[in-house]
């Protein structure tokens, strides 16, 4: 618990999309009241006023338990001054078994379980503190850029499929069918018939403007003018119409991605200017600069670490960051049985960010590449080896955050006791 105020009342809030249910207990477990509230501005205001009235206490003496660590209900209660705590839904499910072994479940019971278990087992709950507006904005832009990237890939794959139907020579031009020069070239040469009539100088100017070095004008036109496949009447026209719609959407998504990347850079710089959580030496580097110096961390990964794992980064908690990113395995031991399994319960966006962090580090960092090769030689899969790389990089990053040092690629990694690597 991260506050020293004596708690005199406990309130459990079972949130939902339309109606939230609240249950209030005093410090001895006596019922103070319970009722439902609508999800609206008036409903949430009424919820805060009801808690104050049934407890008769100042908000700073009332602990509120809820399943989610974010959202309008959490933000409204925190803004009202209550001590809001979050618990994992899986833990709440186990705590519910204390009160009913028949598997009964309803909103009132869940709210009561939240309140009573918080009264007896507050250590299972995480005290929530307000997040800086810059971090909230960074988190939202980071998620938008990831969604835009996924949308870009989907549209590019659909564009490729249409080309495969009637113009397969075009598919071989690039592995990324959403490149600007590929889209511009398709606008110029949308069909095999157009490839035979287009002027060499027009294509040469396009390749020069887009700085394409993989293809020369002669090899490109020779490839596109190869014998076309025979298609039924109307297929080419239908595919061209479909591609025109896809390209408009592709260009819009790519333009939005450029805006998103600029916003990520701006917000990461703004995070560097935030006051540190703990007092540091005057010349200590800020967290974004330290993380950015590590191999494998670009703007997207940096934004994900600073936003999705902000608390763990501020606490320099390597164990928490490993668990959040899914690189820490789950160990199960019972009698003679002992198994180590991949951790599935973790934020997807943070897992993806650490995966790409480790993947790029293997390509650019000598020590990460050697560790990856050693893991593969021992029979581990590609994903398992990258999780090991990610775990090591997280440990190095947290150590650097504690000392305020930048990454030194020439520094030899420390050998654990016993000579294990």
TrEMBL record:
Pfam families: DEDD_Tnp_IS110 (PF01548), Transposase_20 (PF02371). InterPro entries: Transp_IS110-like_N, Transpos_IS110, Transposase_20. PANTHER family: PUTATIVE TRANSPOSASE FOR IS117-RELATED, TRANSPOSASE FOR INSERTION SEQUENCE ELEMENT IS1111A. Residues 290-372 form the Transposase IS116/IS110/IS902 C-terminal domain. Residues 11-168 form the Transposase IS110-like N-terminal domain. This is IS110 family transposase. It comes from Labrys neptuniae.
């Amino acid at each position: 618990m991260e506050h020293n105020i004596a708690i005199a009342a406990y309130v459990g809030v079972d949130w939902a999309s339309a109606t939230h249910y609240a249950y209030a207990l005093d410090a001895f477990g006596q019922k103070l009241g319970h009722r439902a509230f609508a999800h609206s501005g008036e409903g949430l205001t009424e919820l805060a006023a009801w808690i104050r009235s049934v407890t008769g206490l100042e908000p700073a003496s009332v602990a509120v338990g809820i399943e989610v660590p974010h959202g309008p209900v959490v933000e409204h209660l925190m803004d009202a001054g209550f001590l809001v705590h979050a618990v994992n839904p899986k833990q709440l499910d186990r705590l519910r078994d204390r009160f009913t072994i028949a598997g009964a479940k309803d909103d009132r019971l869940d709210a009561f379980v939240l309140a009573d278990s918080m009264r007896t087992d507050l250590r299972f709950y995480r005290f929530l503190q307000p997040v800086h507006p810059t971090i909230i904005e960074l988190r939202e832009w980071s998620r938008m850029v990831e969604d835009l990237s996924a949308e870009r890939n989907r549209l590019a794959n659909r564009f490729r499929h249409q080309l495969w139907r009637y113009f397969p020579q075009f598919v071989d031009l690039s592995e990324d069918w959403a490149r600007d020069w590929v889209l511009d070239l398709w606008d110029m040469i949308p069909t095999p018939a157009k490839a035979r009539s287009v002027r060499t100088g027009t294509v040469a100017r396009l390749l020069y403007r887009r700085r394409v070095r993989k293809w020369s004008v002669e090899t490109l036109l020779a490839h596109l003018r190869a014998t076309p496949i025979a298609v039924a009447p109307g297929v080419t026209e239908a595919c061209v119409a479909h591609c025109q719609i896809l390209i408009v959407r592709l260009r819009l998504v790519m333009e939005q991605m450029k805006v998103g990347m600029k916003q990520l850079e701006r917000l990461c710089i703004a995070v560097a200017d935030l006051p540190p959580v703990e007092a540091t030496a005057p010349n200590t580097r800020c967290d974004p600069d330290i993380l950015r110096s590590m191999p494998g961390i670009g703007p997207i990964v940096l934004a994900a670490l600073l936003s999705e794992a902000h608390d763990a980064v501020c606490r320099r908690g390597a164990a928490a960051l490993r668990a959040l990113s899914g690189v820490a395995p789950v160990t199960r031991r019972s009698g003679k049985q002992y198994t180590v399994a991949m951790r599935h319960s973790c934020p997807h966006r943070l897992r993806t960010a650490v995966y790409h962090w480790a993947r790029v580090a293997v390509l650019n960092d000598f020590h990460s590449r050697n560790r990856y090769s050693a893991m593969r030689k021992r029979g581990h899969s590609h994903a398992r080896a990258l999780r090991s790389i990610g775990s090591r990089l997280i440990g190095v990053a947290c150590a650097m955050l504690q000392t305020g040092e930048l990454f030194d690629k020439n520094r030899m990694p420390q050998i654990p006791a016993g000579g294990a690597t």
